[in-house]
């Protein structure tokens, strides 16, 4: 029976105590070398005879060897105990995983067996169904043949049987030829594959050789022009004549060319006239846009109705009055900027607007000829 860990621990303790006693005796034997001779000279019959004999037995070399052997035996037993305990614990730790692995393998094997049995059963059922279908088909065909024989005239029965035999023979021949052709194709497939591979290799090789030849031609030294022989000259002339014959040129007379020239001139003149009209219309549009922007600016700067005077509405009566007022304002601004001293021009530019009095703007506007009318 296997011993438990508690029993092994008790055995180890006892062996350790025996080891300690052996160690004490070894130390005594080594340190007290002349003690054995003195004890042997002691006369027997004294009070310490038995104890002395035990001490002499302990100090003898045979006892020392036995103690050493016992010590080694105890050490081996201790190592075995620890090793067996380690193996047992390891086995106990691996036991759940081993059980799980065993269960998994058993279940997988059982599943495979069930699948195999199900497949066999399905195959048997399918085989039985096919056999039943064949039997039904044979029965139906025989019934049809019997019904046909009942309908057909007795004199034409042989003819009818011959036709059926020919049809069945044709069907058998068709299936046999299909099977034979498929078999031949399977046998010839490796050779066809080799043939296609050879064609592919040849094509690639020819392309590679053509590229090499082309490179040689490109990097070959120039050998000069070939001499033009009479035969080559005749051949080139024949090629030129053939090309001219295949692509005849369109011959145009002088009258037709003049008419085409006049038509082209008329079309160009019409185009340039239309272009001039378009440019004028564009200029007119730009002028209108400028006038509209000027009117908007004047309206934005116009005073309110309460502050307006009698002369200000006259600025908006004609189309040219706002333009003239704007030009006058720009002119006066430029003059003031020029006449101003230098210290007033610091930090200003010539294009900056300046406040111009309204009296100066109204000067000479009454004498201007604006909008094609003259003031009274």
Automatic annotation (TrEMBL):
Gene3D superfamilies assigned: 1.20.5.190
Annotated compartments: Cytoplasm, Cytoskeleton, Microtubule organizing center, Centrosome
PROSITE patterns in the cross-refs: IQ
Repeat recorded as keyword: yes
Organism superkingdom: Eukaryota
GO molecular function, one term: calmodulin binding
GO CC list: centrosome; photoreceptor connecting cilium
A Pfam family reported for this protein in Swiss-Prot or TrEMBL: IQ
Biological-process GO terms, alphabetical: cilium assembly
Keywords: Calmodulin-binding, Cilium biogenesis/degradation, Coiled coil, Cytoplasm, Cytoskeleton, Repeat
Function recorded in the entry: Involved in ciliogenesis. The function in an early step in cilia formation depends on its association with CEP290/NPHP6. Involved in regulation of the BBSome complex integrity, specifically for presence of BBS2 and BBS5 in the complex, and in ciliary targeting of selected BBSome cargos. May play a role in controlling entry of the BBSome complex to cilia possibly implicating CEP290/NPHP6.
Name of this chain's protein: IQ calmodulin-binding motif-containing protein 1
